[in-house]
Design a protein that fits this description.
The chain has 229 residues and is of the alpha/beta class. The chain contains nine helices and eight strands. A hairpin with a 2-residue loop joins β2 and β3.
């Protein structure tokens, strides 16, 4: 459970970075405050920005719509822990794989136009770091000068850079057909795995292998999928 005092310090740090015109904070503000969604970096850094705005960013980072809602949520959680400490444990709510790419703009273009992701933020001019998302999946993109893994080794051993889960085998088939229509390059087309899931692997412009998997339901859907491999 986050400590409120530490969250206050985080908000003050965001405020200070805005006052110092620290460039990456503009992308953070744009991603988390709806009123800045379409505002360029320079205008964000020149705009009036208060502590309450920074506190709203911190609140949204923790899943609350406002600073007051965050404080109320922390208070409720604190009382719950005190009343039944043995029943509480930390929960991991998400994971964000990081792909190493040679060109951030090219990679973002691939994820947005081919895989139907959306840009969450992009840092730098030229950009050196970005994040894209689709539904609940988020992928971080980091610019590097040369490939971290040799492409022939990656392909031979199928060294995956990310694994993305779709709810069912039926839905992963729909996703495969969507990407096929978009002209996506597949390292491995849709097929059934021995454990019952349907999977396919996409190769991005830098050779990163992205596995998409959908679990087969009990009953007839799995059987209906056998024709596509």
């Amino acid at each position: 459970m986050p400590d409120l005092e530490n969250l206050r310090k985080q908000a003050k740090l965001i405020l200070r970075r805005h006052r110092e015109r620290y460039h990456p904070v503009a992308a953070q503000i744009r991603a988390l405050l709806p009123r800045f969604h379409d505002v360029p970096d320079a205008e964000i850094l020149a705009a009036t920005f208060k502590l309450s705005d920074a506190q709203e960013i911190v609140a949204r980072q923790h899943g609350f719509d406002s600073w007051q809602a965050l404080k109320t949520g922390l208070s409720t959680a604190s009382r719950s822990v005190q009343s039944s400490p043995s029943s509480c444990k930390a929960t991991i709510t998400g994971a964000e794989p990081q792909l190493f790419v040679a060109d951030i703009e090219r990679s973002c273009d691939f994820f947005i136009k081919k895989l139907a992701f959306s840009l969450v933020f992009s840092f730098g001019k030229p950009p050196y770091y970005a994040q894209v998302s689709r539904d609940r999946a988020r992928i971080n993109l980091r610019c590097v000068e040369r490939s971290v893994i040799e492409s022939n080794v990656r392909d031979r051993d199928e060294l995956l850079s990310a694994s993305l889960t779709v709810a069912t085998a039926e839905e992963v088939k729909l996703l495969f057909l969507e990407y096929q229509s978009a002209g996506v390059s597949f390292h491995e087309k849709l097929k059934r795995q021995p454990w019952g899931a349907k999977t396919f692997i996409v190769k991005d412009p830098d050779g990163n292998l992205l596995l998409f998997a959908g679990r087969a339901r009990a009953g007839g859907i799995a059987g209906q999928m056998d024709g596509l491999s």
